[in-house]
Batch of 3 targets.
Target 1
Amino acid sequence: MPDAPEFARGFLGIAFCIDENNEHFESLYIRPTNGRDENQLRRNRSTQYFSYPDYKFDRFRTESPGEYESYADMGLDECIDLKIKVAGEHASFT
């Protein structure tokens, strides 16, 4: 939405490993608005992973900078091909 706050700019995601009470889950998401932003740091946050409630993106950024988010070339109003590869306990976007 045009009036969304800066921290909540457009993103799409998928949640998995959701517990019965919807209190714990893991999520992978993409942020097309970041894909071609002029700010390099924002571009580097085009794809992200987090685990709610204990390992949200801000904790990962503090404890493991850049490890759970990455750049991907994408933009708004475009078809975005997304492939998630899971190998054991590890997942990655391509």
Target 2
Amino acid sequence: MNEIKKASIIGSGNMATFWAKCFFEHRFPLKSIVSRNQEKGELLANEYGAEWHSDYPDFEDDEMVLLCVSDDAIENISNNILCKNILHCSGAISIDALKKHQNRAVAYPLQTIHADYPLGIEKIPLLIESTSSNQALQNWLIQFNFNMQYVDSNQRLKYHIAAVFANNFTNAMLVLTQDYCYNQTLDFNLLNPLIQQTFQRLENKNPSEVQTGPAKRNDLKTIQKHLQALKEEKQMTDIYQIMSEIIRKRF
């Protein structure tokens, strides 16, 4: 992998904004933003001192091209551009999607990324994979202070699955809880101290150490009362039964 002296980003969404902000904060040159969405692309380019292009420009030998696009678009875009160094940021897509390019890499932030994410990137695990010299890639990325971890595509996919369970599914459970509270005229905000404590305890304990509830206690009477009260809520009943059985078997 050649020495990287500048970067270009294809995309203008949350991931593109995150990397543009990262480069700006660390005074690393951002050459261009490539985006079919002119409004978002120009706005991002103007904010971080880059050029906006609606189509692929001529990428120079000393720049890294980051594909900050949807998973479905990565391989197609990779096959349609010419560059010396290319990198995608997906958790679920193999590095082989970039096989047209000799110097290819993946840098997947193991974090929910949104446009207004406060940097603090030294706390973000960045899962790295490269077919070229890992040292060259590390020399480029080390200036941004990520917590870099080298994993292959199969390991990265498994981390992505774990992230879905830990983050996406957990949040979806809270959405379901909020809907239930609304339908039952309950105040969801009264649960906030409980929710906050749940995650605060995980800062210095393993999840298995803080598990509580009727299923862990094998309190079948309470479980049956809950299921009876949920009899009109089929989706919640199904989830309650599945999760209770998982907890009872685990603990």
Target 3
Amino acid sequence: MPRLLKLMSPLLLSLAATPCFAHAVLVDSMPAPNAHLPAGALAVKFRYNSRIDVSRSKLTLSGPGGGPARLAVHRGDTDAMLVADATVVPGAYTLRWQVLALDGHITRGSVPFSVDAP
């Protein structure tokens, strides 16, 4: 039995060392969390630590005067970026995101920010 264990040890170690894929984590955003921005056009850019499936991702914007509005999302400069456009007026906002990573897992989060009156 000990001889069999010695022979199988490299196989068991190689299985234990198999890398696993990480979920998509937001690493940079425009707007930044808790940012204060001017009213008008808003270019949303979210960058993640891994590639995402943009077609199965979503972004909603909640702000003054209404419930969440779903934004049309597009792929950014890389496969790990999500971009969208919106128009904002003064008030408190929250961008909620949901992305599907290549590992097949969905991750979610939110970015609160404010739009200041002129």
